[in-house]
User: Which sequence fits this backbone?
């Protein structure tokens, strides 16, 4: 059975449909199982991550995203971003659209201005996806530390991160 | 980590196969896996896998070492942390409003981790 030669399309057409005894019965025999749903979801997730990574793999967009991450919940207006990064307005608009498509940035219009904010849940999900199951079971072992520390700014400046401080005490 | 390096790393990861390879290696982090096992687990033909390994190595995301007849690949966790760190640098600035959101969902795991990356060096 395993060594049965593979039929190409022409041959298959020439042979006609298989007899009903071996014909594949659609829903009764093989319904859509949870497995299929599971893989659909997983593929979606992986695709979303790739879109996000591809969006970030460009200098201007990376700069915009980092600026918005630093801006926090207050966000930044498009004008302020353009000024900070020295980017022309149409270029910026294009890059912001790319980031928004990847789900990394959300926008909200306030009167005449559009405020852009970093989408932290997406950012966290992205980082989680990259570092999932890091080191397998060995994280339980204190000597191996591979969990990324997401407070590098404070690490560099030597200021203890807020969240980490409360955690440790 | 400088911006160009981060860009190369992100571009390297923005490909389905490489992302899968990288995640697998992160999972087996300190010691890594032999190339053959990576190919077997992900169902990737060895020649295309070798191309993707090269890309990831060029991006500085993985390291390789020769062990007899086998080449072992392992994720460079310092690089991983640096990329993640670069993305989240000065996260939320000084405002306390979004601090909790900035914390990763893996905080439970992070709680047992020491802030600085100390990796057991394999001999």
Assistant:
């Amino acid at each position: 059975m395993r060594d049965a030669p593979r039929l190409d399309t022409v041959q298959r057409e020439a042979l006609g449909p298989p007899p009903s005894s071996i014909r594949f019965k659609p829903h009764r025999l093989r319904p859509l199982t949870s497995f299929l749903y599971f893989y659909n979801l997983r593929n979606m997730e992986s695709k979303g991550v790739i879109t996000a990574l591809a969006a970030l793999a460009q200098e201007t967009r990376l700069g915009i995203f980092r600026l918005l991450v630093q801006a926090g919940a207050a966000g930044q207006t498009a004008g302020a971003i353009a000024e900070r990064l020295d980017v022309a307005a149409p270029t910026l608009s294009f890059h912001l659209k790319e980031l928004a498509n990847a789900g990394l940035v959300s926008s909200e219009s306030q009167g005449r201005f559009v405020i852009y904010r970093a989408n932290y849940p997406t950012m966290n999900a992205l980082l989680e996806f990259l570092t999932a199951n890091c080191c397998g079971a060995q994280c339980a072992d204190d000597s191996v530390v591979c969990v990324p520390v997401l407070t590098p700014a404070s690490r560099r400046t030597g200021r203890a991160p807020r969240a980490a401080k409360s955690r440790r005490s | 980590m400088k911006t160009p390096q981060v860009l190369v790393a992100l571009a390297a990861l923005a490909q389905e196969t490489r992302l899968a390879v990288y995640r697998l290696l992160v999972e087996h982090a300190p010691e890594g896996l032999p190339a053959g096992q990576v190919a077997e687990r992900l169902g990737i033909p060895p020649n295309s896998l070798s191309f993707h390994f090269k890309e990831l190595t060029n991006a500085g995301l993985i390291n390789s070492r020769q062990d007899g007849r086998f080449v072992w690949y392992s994720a460079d966790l310092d690089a991983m942390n640096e990329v993640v760190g670069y993305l989240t640098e000065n996260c939320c600035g000084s405002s306390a409003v979004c601090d909790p959101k900035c914390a990763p969902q893996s905080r439970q795991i992070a709680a047992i981790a020491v802030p600085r990356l100390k990796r057991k060096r394999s001999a």
